[in-house]
Design a protein that fits this description.
Layout lengths: L1 H23 L16 H5 L8 E5 L7 H20 L3 E5 L9 H10 L5 E7 L2 E7 L2 E6 L2 E6 L9 H24 L4 E7 L10 H7 L3 E7 L7 H9 L3 E5 L7 H12 L3 E5 L3 E2 L11 E6 L5 H5 L3 E3 L2 E5 L2 E8 L6 E13 L14 E2 L6 E3 L5 E7 L4 E5 L2 E4 L18 E11 L17 E10 L9 E2 L2 E2 L4 E2 L4 E2 L2 H13 L19 H6 L1 H31 L2
């Protein structure tokens, strides 16, 4: 008896010692096939410098359907990994509508903060109900807050695909938020002006969003003619130049200043319309307008980088809709109609920039060709296989919506709409007469990157009552597109020195039960799960009883 008691005491003491030691040593094993709980080096670095509590409120609690329960569990697992790296990471799950007396008021307040709700169907005990869920997290540090979207919606995605896309996005989303809160010195972006580029109000949502990452300033090229050295010196103070839908030709002097900036190591993001055409131009009595080539004097500039911008329009059977009014006065009706000159572009998911994106909306986009050069080129976006190009000048008419397209003509698709160019850039004016005299001319530069997109309106947000709407939102059809996320990814890739954006390439696969098999084999598995244990219990009981009877006679 004493020996048994002593053994029990020893076991208890050993367990206590092990628990005490475990409190000092933390270890987790990631046994998943895709290593989804193993954080990348860039993600770990994003939380390394926090010296004060980082409080994360995840608005994902309460009565949730299975897909959101899975998302909640995956979010918890991921944040536990971050918290194991830095003890200042604290998180909790809350239901923002729980206990609210004025639910509509709470929903309105959350929407005002930019937290878009999701309506989901919940089935419980044979009853179906609609629930409003806010799949967001709020990351708070000192006096700053960053919103993190947890749900990734993609057009036509199944429930499983939606959960997979969301889980795959989690590590980057939180690491990106931590990086925003911990930025000590922001890089600088120059918004190029002076050649009829988009007005600030049409880029307001995008510029407001990227202020979390970067400092923004405007550089006007008008002064190049009088003081080119000063303009170039100002431009060199920025890490990237953003040129959004210029409508006036660049002079050779302006191109040379941009060339010297890029050859010297400056990154650049170009959104170029080679054709002058706007939807508003069609709203006249004839319902027609002429699409004309736009001379920006940039052909030789891009040619040196192995890019040829074509003066054409992409016509695509994968399109986004426009809304036209019929009737007059109070009897007017607004109907969405197909518009083949507004391609709906799906990303190939073959690069950190375009991976796991919602479809993008282009408007009167042109195409480009890639040419042989010394630089590496990665096609980021293309039109669908069922698309074609149309040369200009060309009359565009609204009544094309009433004429079914001839599908046999759409046999030369996959037109390039966006390309990334990387390499050690040489000056486009190399071995040419220079249009300007500068104190120092750079002919060969360091490793560099640029992105060229064939639609200036890709960055353009709509306006309502004089106020800019969110980029990617179409107020006429109430649809959201992935324009903003794609363009943010472009900047982050061009300016990212930490490799953080490469997290977007991480592939995650969440295993799901086969609903069809569940329905077909439900009865069988119920019998196995309930009947088999009962049968085994009866068999073992009978065997034990028989053995005891033979051995002891009872």
């Amino acid at each position: 008896m004493k020996r048994s008691l002593l053994s029990i005491i020893k076991a208890v003491v050993l367990l206590l010692i092990l628990n005490i030691l475990a409190s000092f040593f933390y270890a987790r094993l990631d046994l998943t096939e895709d290593n989804r709980y193993t954080l990348s080096t860039a993600a770990l670095n994003s939380v390394g410098d926090f010296s004060a509590p980082v409080i994360i409120d995840i608005l994902l609690d309460g009565n949730l359907p299975p897909e959101f329960i899975k998302l909640k569990l995956e979010t918890r697992q991921l944040l536990e990994e971050f918290a194991s790296e830095n003890k200042n990471i604290k998180f909790n799950f809350v239901n923002p509508l729980e206990g609210a007396t004025q639910i509509d008021g709470v929903i309105t307040d959350l929407q005002a903060l930019g937290l878009t709700p999701t309506n989901v169907t919940v089935e419980q005990n044979g009853k179906v109900s609609q629930e409003i869920i806010f799949p967001w997290a709020m990351v708070n540090y000192n006096n700053s807050t960053v919103k993190v979207p947890l749900l990734k919606n993609k057009l036509g995605a199944t429930t499983e695909e939606r959960v997979n896309n969301s889980v795959q996005h989690l590590e980057y989303a939180f690491a990106d938020a931590f990086t925003k809160l911990n930025i000590k010195e922001k890089k600088k972006i120059a918004i190029i002006k002076g050649n009829g580029e988009l007005g600030d109000i049409y880029m307001a949502d995008y510029l407001t969003t990227i202020k979390d990452y970067y400092n923004i300033g405007a550089i006007t090229l008008d002064s190049v003619a009088t003081n080119p050295e000063k303009v170039l010196e100002q431009l060199k103070g920025f890490d990237l130049a953003l040129i959004a839908k210029p409508t006036e030709a660049f002079s050779d002097e302006e191109k040379f200043i941009l060339d010297q900036y890029i050859t010297g190591g400056g990154k650049s993001l170009w959104l170029i319309d080679q054709v002058a055409m706007e939807l508003d131009s069609l709203f006249n009595e004839e319902g027609t307008a002429m699409a004309l080539p736009r001379n920006l004097n940039l052909n030789d500039f891009f040619f040196k980088y192995g890019i040829r911008l074509n003066t054409d329009l992409v016509n695509d059977l994968y399109f986004t809709q426009i809304v036209l009014a019929s009737g007059e006065g109070n009897s007017s009706q607004y109907n969405p109609v197909p518009w083949y000159y507004n391609p709906m572009v799906f990303s190939k998911n073959d690069h950190p920039i375009n991976n796991n994106l919602e479809a993008l909306r282009f408007q009167f986009a042109g195409s480009l060709d890639t040419l042989a050069s010394d630089y590496k080129k990665q096609i980021l976006l293309s039109s669908s296989p069922l698309s074609k190009t149309e040369g200009v000048p060309k009359p565009i008419q609204l009544d094309i919506i009433n004429t079914p397209p001839d599908k046999d003509l759409y046999n030369d698709g996959n037109k390039i709409l966006g390309v990334l160019v990387e390499g050690a850039f040489k000056s486009t004016f190399l071995n040419r007469v220079k249009p300007l005299k500068l104190d120092k001319i750079v002919d060969q530069g360091p490793e560099n990157k640029m992105i060229v997109l064939t639609d200036g309106d890709l960055i353009r947000n709509q306006i309502r009552n004089g106020r800019p709407l969110e980029l990617g939102y179409d107020k006429w059809t109430n649809n959201f597109f992935g324009n903003k996320e794609f363009l943010i990814n472009c900047l982050n890739y061009l300016l990212d020195d930490t490799g953080l954006i490469n997290i977007r390439n991480k592939k995650v696969t969440i295993p799901f039960l086969d609903e069809e098999k569940i329905n077909d084999q439900k009865t069988k598995w119920q019998l196995i799960n309930i009947g088999l244990p009962l049968c085994l219990t009866f068999i073992f009981g009978f065997l034990i009883h028989t053995i005891r009877k033979k051995k002891y006679g009872v």
